[in-house]
Amino acid sequence: MRLLAAALAPLLALIGCSYAGRHSDVGAHNCRTLAADPGWHGDNRQRIHAMINRLSTCGKAESVTAGAPLVLFDWDNTMVRNDVGSATFYWMINNSKIRQPTGGNWSTTSAYLTTEAAAALAAACGGLADPGQPLPTGSNISCADELVAVYTRHETRSGAAAFTGYNRRRIQPGDAWAAQLLAGWTDAEITEFAAAARKQNLDAAEGSEQTVGSSRQTGWVRYYTQMRDLVGTLQANGFDVRIISATAEPVVRVWAGDVGFPGDHVMGVRTDHDGDVLTPRLALCGGEPSIPFNEGKRCRVNEQLFGVKGVSAFQQLPEQRRQVFAAGDSDGDVTFITDATTLRLALNRNQIELMCRAYANADGKWMVNPTFINPLPMSPPYPCATQGFDEPDGGQAPLRQADGTVVPDQQDRVH
Predict the structure, then answer these.
(1) Is residue 99 part of a domain?
(2) One GO MF term, please (predicted)?
(3) Which of 26, 30, 76, 368 has a Cα at 20 to 30 A from 46?
(4) Which of these three, 152, 185, 218, is where a domain ends?
(5) What is the pLDDT of residues 310-331, one digit of tens each?
(6) Are residues 98 and 9 in the same domain?
(7) Given 3-state DSSP classes, what are the helix, strand and coil percentages for the chain, each rounded to the nearest 5?
(8) Are strands 343-348 and 222-223 parallel, antiparallel or unpaired?
(9) Which of 215, 244, 226 is nearest to 81 (CA)?
(10) How confident is the model at residue 31, as a pLDDT?
(11) What is the reported pTM?
(12) Quick one: 327 and 182 in the same domain?
């Protein structure tokens, strides 16, 4: 028997990786493992590795529709440091690629834009180009500054609120507006713009700024090597790995392709088309205008990957129809990360609701990691018991567990 076992050992080693089951030992079958890296806090790497060991098929990635375990990542400040949507928005301003809206009416660019914001934009940009034509924002500081103020601060330069009438758990109006301002261009043209912005921000020195209008804005982006390795390791072990982002989908696709994501594995903000040209109309999810933000991320995943239609797409699915692992960095990621059934990774950017849930760790499935580049210092205690939950109308309320108990305030322990 010993001779037979010795004779079969090479053959078993050869076929072991291809036929390993869901509960295989990845390392034992020489399948890809997560690289050791000092950027991983505590036992986070070991916990992820254990999940891969338990769920891996140790073979080529398949689709969740074929039974592969699903993994979801946010993009901005999760897969990269800084925001690729902002990087593209600033590039478009500096290169005069934002068009004068139809009829010169800025209210057509967003249903959530206030009357005051539409008037301020019209005053700053209205006479600079005919409707449908690119605005000279690369040279006109006043128009550029108004656009930047509305996007970054959600206010006009004079301090008036820029957006209203939206569900704070389903819409981030600035991110939606950045996608809506791609109107008038084709997907191919937006791909070119995003590629140019990507090159500029990768070439720029880490920590550098750029001038946009009269303001100074972040001017660089970097991929996280640890997250690139994590994605590759999951894909090599048979997981269906996808992006769910509140940045315009054509923009995220440009960046995600370098990490090995096919275009159809990237879910971002979508706007409707008029022929080949993008419009400012937000695509629907769950029967309403929605973007992949907080509950909108769940809606998009449920609708696109699991075929759930109507308002039911906003509801949590049974465990066997949910992602096993999810990672994000902001309160806009809370819902889809919470839906993960095995492990949940929160990169700490001092976001109250996300960090309250992660540190409370009610079911032991949460992990917290500092950002891999420029980690933030320790935050004051998170006010979970009073301000831990963002209400749809913009108010804040105590954060509650599934059983209704209030989450106590949490100390910032991983930074």
Answers:
(1) yes
(2) L-phosphoserine phosphatase activity
(3) 76
(4) 218
(5) 999 999 999 999 999 999 999 9
(6) no
(7) 40, 20, 40
(8) unpaired
(9) 226
(10) 85
(11) 0.92
(12) no
Distance between start and end Cα atoms, the chain: 55
* Together in a domain, 139 and 205: yes
- Using CA atoms, how far apart are residues 110 and 171, in angstroms rounded to an integer? 12
Residue 404 covered by a domain: no
Please spell the DSSP secondary structure of 194-224, one letter per residue: HHHHHHHHHHSPTT-EEEETTEEEE---EE-
Q: Assess whether 47 and 64 both reside in one domain.
A: no
Residue 381 zone, left/alpha/beta (φ > 0; ψ -120 to 50; rest): beta
192 plus 129 within the same structural domain: yes
Strand blocks (E) in 44-144: 70-73, 80-81
Q: Are 236 and 29 in contact (CB under 8 A)?
A: no
Q: Which amino acid is at 22?
A: R
Point out which residues pair with 80 in neighbouring strands: 76, 223
Q: How confident is the model at residue 58 (pLDDT cuts 50, 70, 90)?
A: confident
CA dihedral 50, 52, 57, 61 (to 10 degrees): 180
The domain total for the chain is 3
Q: How far apart are CA 14 and CA 109, in angstroms?
A: 58
Tell me the residue range of the domain where 285 lies: 53-80+224-397
Domain C-terminal end among 193, 218, 243: 218
- Please tell me the predicted confidence (pLDDT) of residue 61: 66
Query: Looking at the structure, do residues 180 and 268 belong to the same domain, yes or no?
Result: no
Cα–Cα dist 197/318, whole Å: 40
Q: What is the CA radius of gyration of the chain?
A: 23
Shared-domain flag, residues 33 and 99:
no
163 and 238, same domain (yes or no)? no
Rounded CA separation 339/305 (Å):
14
In terms of Cα–Cα distance, which of 92, 282, 255 is closest to 172?
282
- The percent of residues above 70 in pLDDT, for the chain, comes to 93
Cα–Cα distance for residue pair 110/395, rounded to 1 Å = 22
* Amino acid, res. 192: E
Identify whether the C-beta of residue 343 lies closer than 8 Å to the C-beta of residue 358: no
